[in-house]
Fold RNA-directed DNA polymerase, eukaryota.
Amino acid sequence: MHHHHGKFILFGDMNTVRHENKRFGSLFSRLEADHFNSFIDSSGLIDLPIGDRYFTWMNKVGTKHSKLHHFLFSVEILEVLRDIRITSLDRTWSDHTHILLHVLKSDFGPNPFKFYNSWLLRDGFDELIKSAWFTLETNNDGRILRSHEKLRSLKTTIKQ
């Protein structure tokens, strides 16, 4: 298979593992793993990790474990869905782990302004701050709001 363009996801129980450490208590086939890894690489796919579970299958007595489930994404879909997550759920009646594919967008607002002490060592930095502070005009009569507006403008001045 060659690299295909488009948005697609291949997922499910692939019945093989990619690496020896993804199998416990059963035989590992280097040949199968090499074929599977070659398929993923030549197809241009990305195998996203399943969040919080190392193995996705376990036999009934708990002596054999494998990571058989894979979510293989095209690069194009990951460019669109940057916040995609894969979470494993509790194994209940099956020997396979239930898996949830979802989008988890965490928006913590704008990045806070960071002040670096090294800026104080720059020539003319003190004068830049003083002149910017005293020349900034605001239309607000409240001291706190006026200071807030000046600090916001000062941030822009410093970043330049």
